[in-house]
Amino acid sequence: MDQHKKSNARRIFVNIVIVLALSYIITVTFFVVHQHQLAVLQSDIVRRLEARVEKLENNDFAAQKKERDSVGEADRVMEGKSARLKAKLAVPDLSRGRDKRQFEGYCPCLQGPKGDAGPPGRRGKKGKRGHKGDQGPAGPEGPKGEPGINGEPGIKGTQGEQGPKGPKGLNGINGTQGPAGPPGAAGVKGDRGEVGIQGPKGNPGPPGASMSESIQLVGDGQKIQNPRIHRISNWDERHREGSIEYHPSTGFIEVKRKGYYFIYSQMYYYDGSTVLMGHHTYINHDKVMESAGSVISSQRKYNTKYHGGVFLLQENDTISVHIPYTTRYYMDSEGSFFGAFLLHRID
């Protein structure tokens, strides 16, 4: 079945490659033909333009030749007319340059080319700046006036004489003290009560029973693969107090006192080959707690699951952890642990 699918896939791939190659060849052929047509069209346009330019150049050459012939004939005619006109209008006292300027406008012959402009004249020197007048000397400061004379202080008045001191008054006379009152009579003292007889001391009661029942198990550090049984027994005893016991050969925790216990467990997984990961906690042969989750991929396969709860346990009940889905787990001492402790004892 797999071989048939592979052959179909190969055939489809070859067909796709052939179609793409044919499309590429057709596209390139169309592009080359289109470029050839454009080149032929442009060559035809260039030939037409060259023929038109050649025709225009021939017409222009013939027109210039005809114009030169006609101009030469006209020059000869106009030169004769100009000579006759100058003879009639000649003025002896005008300069030759003025005659030329005055009658140049009447000559119908063509004007000669304009001569080049002469070089610009030199710029005159800048005149010197005039001297600035000297500043006159400052005038002398006027004399300072004399300070005025301070006035004389006034005469201090005389102090008046102190009057005589008056006579001292007489001290008052203290009054006489009154006689003391008679003392009060003393109260009557009551009779003293009798002392009670102390009862006998009771016997001390029996010592109370210890309420400390707890155990903490941690993973032994091994990586387990494909276990033969699903009950975990790879535990190391980290803490134990009271009569509670752990059986390493079976993985059971056994309680010896009836009461309410808090039970907890956590497992560390690294299995990416299964769909689910999880673990169960059992009391005797009954499942009481469960944790489960989905495996993301073979690369993201590491995870931990924890659960805990309070349960009433009878004397000699057992607690254990089971793995229902995964086949690989890591008994790391920080990531995998299991335990229980007594909350309330029932006698």
Rg, rounded, reads 70 Å
> Count the strands?
12
Percentage of residues assigned to helices? 25-40%
| Mean of pLDDT | 77
Q: What is the approximate shape? A: flat
Reported by name, the CATH topology of the domain at 213-345 is Jelly Rolls
- Biggest sheet statistics: 5 strands, antiparallel
The first-level CATH class of the domain at 213-345 is given as Mainly Beta
Give the low-confidence spans.
91-110, 205-210
Can you offer a commentary on this structure?
- With 347 residues, this protein is of the alpha+beta class.
- The protein has a domain at 213-345: Jelly Rolls (Sandwich).
- The protein has helices at 2-88, 96-103, and strands at 214-219, 223-225, 235-241, 245-247, 252-254, 259-269, 276-283, 286-294, 303-313, 318-322, 328-330, 337-345.
- The strands form 3 sheets. Strands 3-1-12-6-9 form a 5-stranded antiparallel sheet, with no helix packed on it. The protein has a 5-stranded antiparallel sheet with strand order 4-5-10-7-8, with no helix packed on it. Strands 2-11 form a two-stranded antiparallel sheet.
- A hairpin with a 4-residue loop joins β4 and β5.
- The chain is flat.
- It starts with a helix and ends with a strand.
- The relative contact order is 0.10.
